[in-house]
Amino acid sequence: MWEIQGLCKAYHGRQVLQPVSLSIGPGECLGLIGANGSGKSTLLRLLAQVQRPDGGKVLFQGRDTRGDKVFLRQRQGYVPQEDALAEELTVRQQLALWQAACGLPGALPREILALMGLEPLLKSPLRSLSGGMRRRVSIAMALLPDPDILLMDEATTGLDGDYRLALLEWMEPFLKRGGRAVWCTHRQEELERICTRCMRLEEGRARWGQ
């Protein structure tokens, strides 16, 4: 079980995320919805440990994951709302660098390259890519380690339709084999297709259902 216990965050004295507690079992995809500024990206950044919470903890199979770099890089994938890529690198270099940081040997997985259509772009500098192409690189980075958990913050925003559908199709067997996900989106059809339940954030407070 993946358990989130009382996770919360404040900025400059303003509580942007009230304590959130939930559990996500194998095969579950939690749809995360809410207006802009409601705390969705904050929650995902806390789960990805990009930011530190003010309180609470996250457990995976009963173990606290705080500061566990092996867990974060090998068992959890994260697509942030804003792509965090090294402009000076090529696509191949960016993917290879992340694969090495995850401690994964061997060549880049062809399945992931094909899924996101990256083979023709491997020699291209990241600074030369369109927003949609950069998004495909970010998604590939999240999928590289074949994680147990995916944190997807508007992952399909900017994607061409074919790649958006390909990602949704990839998610279905991922969940069937026991993967877990938090899927933040404004697209109703995505929620209906892959999410097993939804949580709405309203001014940092969790509300269940759509």
For the structure shown, list the relevant keywords.
210 residues, 4-stranded antiparallel sheet, globular
Order of helices and strands: EEEHEEHEHHHEHEHEE
What do the pLDDT scores average to? 94
- Beta-strand percentage range: 25-35%
- Strand adjacency order, main sheet: 6-7-8-3-9-10
- Tell me, briefly, the overall form: globular
Number of strands: 10
Q: Distance N terminus to C terminus? A: 24 Å
Biggest sheet descriptor: 6 strands, mixed
Low-confidence stretches: none
The percent of residues in helical segments reads 25-40%
Structural class computed from helices and strand pairing: alpha/beta
Number of helices: 7
Q: How large, in whole angstroms, is the Cα Rg?
A: 17 Å
Tell me the layout of helices and strands:
Layout: E1 2-11, E2 14-24, E3 29-33, H1 40-48, E4 55-60, E5 63-64, H2 69-75, E6 76-79, H3 91-101, H4 110-115, H5 131-143, E7 149-153, H6 161-176, E8 180-184, H7 188-194, E9 197-202, E10 205-208
Parallel strand pairs: 3-8, 3-9, 6-7, 7-8
Antiparallel strand pairs: 1-2, 1-4, 4-5, 9-10
